[in-house]
Design goal:
The chain is built from six helices and eight strands. It is α+β, with helices and mostly antiparallel strands and 177 residues long. The protein has one domain: Gcn5-related N-acetyltransferase (GNAT) (Aminopeptidase, 3-Layer(aba) Sandwich). The chain has an eight-stranded mixed beta sheet, with helices on both faces.
Length: 177
């Protein structure tokens, strides 16, 4: 746990993303196992620094590095805090997939947002082929709300984009049960 930790879970902690995290952010932009499921374009270090300035340090967004056992394992973020239902964005290093870190970290973020941001709910999108992300969202109580058929061209073909949503009342209810 670092001295800037904002949220502690059982195995993960969330701390604000800093410029010193450019290397882990750049990995998400270059490693095809992360970049393709995110639908992002490859970026060099300079472009990644610009991304940090615009989206991480910019107003209206929250971005946290996920740490487990003093290792940086991913990023969780919320963009566009102004609307009633801001959007979650997250990714984890491939070597940590399938171990429950994603569900725990995204759950910590959802809980943090509902405790600190006046929003009615949250939204998240995932490509049809990204079943790991679908699982994270469904385990946290998100429901599929819509599908944009063959909406994005990813890795050589058109793919569906699935939209998920979670209302604050649903989150509160699941936590009190």
């Amino acid at each position: 746990m670092s001295d800037t930790t904002i949220v502690d879970g059982e195995r993960v902690s969330l701390r604000p993303t800093e410029r010193d995290d450019v290397d882990i952010l750049q990995r998400s932009m270059t490693d095809p196992r992360i970049r393709i499921p995110l639908g992002s374009e490859p970026r060099n270090e300079h472009e990644t620094t610009e991304f940090i300035e615009e989206y991480v340090e910019g107003d209206g967004n929250l971005s946290f590095v996920v740490e487990a056992a003093d290792e940086r394992i991913g990023i969780v973020a919320v963009k566009s805090l102004e609307p009633a239902r801001p959007e979650l964005v997250y990714w984890f290093l491939p070597e940590y997939h399938g171990q429950g870190y994603g569900t725990e970290a995204v759950g910590c973020l959802v809980d943090y947002v509902f405790k600190t941001v006046d929003c009615h709910g949250l939204t998240a999108v995932a490509f049809e082929f990204n079943q790991g992300s679908h699982g994270v969202l469904k385990r946290l109580g998100f429901r599929e709300e819509g599908r944009l058929r063959e909406h994005r061209f990813v890795d050589g073909s058109y793919v569906d984009v699935v939209q998920f949503g979670l209302l604050r009342s649903e989150w509160d209810e699941s936590r009190s049960a």
